[in-house]
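Sample pair:
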Amino acid sequence: MAREAARRMSCSNNMKQWGLALHNYHSAYNVCPGLGNGYYPAYSIQANLLPYIEQPALSSLLDFKTPLLTGSRGSSYINPALSEVIQCTANLFKCPSDGTDHLYPISNIGTTSGDVAYARGSNYVFSTGSGVYPNMDLRYPTDGLFYYNSARGFESITDGMSNTIILSEAKLGDNAGSPTEGDAPEMRRVADVGGWVKPLAATDNTQGTDPALTDPGDGSFTSIKGQTDACTDWETKRCGAWIWGAPLYSAFNAYYPPNHNIPDIHFHGMGLYGARSNHPTGVNAGLGDGSVRFTSNSIHLDIWRSAASIGGGESVHLP
């Protein structure tokens, strides 16, 4: 118990560093960085914050004039110039309670067939909001601080900096290739299914009107559980590339309560990505004022979701 308490404190200190880096970035640009654009992902929020955190050796390897990907939409690849830096990591990226350390195959390098780009990940992920429809569609402004191509400033957090979640934790994927059966051991896999989010991937680039997703409000998430129970295609690289601005790798939403027992689910870059950790009873959550609160798995779902929204008018405080 003493060792876990120390690990949890170390995790909290890491998150405070990320929160401080976000404030330093905001002081420089008067906005916060956003995710990539979904169709052609760019550098992650984490990557953009590196110059504002105490990681000079790693941040010096990044030149943001160098595009993360080469090629075109549908046939893009990791830029060969970044093949080494994407494998670098630091203690600041990892929750010591997780203990997982993989090199994740995330793409080809350039256009050379079979030349695979391997990356390392991070347990610390930034909030895209409540995840309640339509806020899982990151092509449009969400009720969170971050979404595709977002450039929101702190003035948009009208619920109060000390009341709003900006980052939390997620478990690193188990890197089991692309299994076509099984489940999500330790909730380290994401169900890769299509039906419920297809309306959000409309070809006319407009928000869908029916996500085919029901939530009876009792925490059972009936339709989602049915799809994850039947899932035969699992994504195993959750949080597998700290450098990549895609929600699978670098973001979460508050649709599920912390450490929920139904796996994450996604399709075409959108989904329900929960806050998860190996801490016994909850997750660390970083707030807009730079503080970190340990949040219990049993937190009321409405409070958790409200704390992830930046301007819902709710007066909530994480316990």
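Confidence is low (pLDDT under 50) at residues 197-214.
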